[in-house]
Known about the structure:
Radius of gyration: 13 Å
Structural class: alpha+beta
Order of helices and strands: EHHEEHEEE
Helix content: 25-40%
Distance between the termini: 16 Å
Strand order of the largest sheet: 2-3-1-6
Amino acid sequence: xxxxxxxxxxxxxxxxxxxxxxxxxxxxxxxxxxxxxxxxxxxxxxxxxxxxxxxxxxxxxxxxxxxxxxxxxxxxxxxxxxxxxxxxxxxxxxxxx
Length: 97
């Protein structure tokens, strides 16, 4: 799985919002490559307040899809419950274990 970090998301964003956002921007790509899809979506929250931190991780089953998603969605407008933000999308870098 290949992860993208999505920064500057509205605080009302849900995993469903992010799936719709990426499916919308990758609709033609997914039609041409039906074997690819979005893996999972994780929105970290503060344990005490349950408020999101303003970023999320979206995983894809293929590096090619993750690269395409990064190109097609960076600096695009994400709507969530009447709020919007131009999101910043980058490959997530995780330290080696």
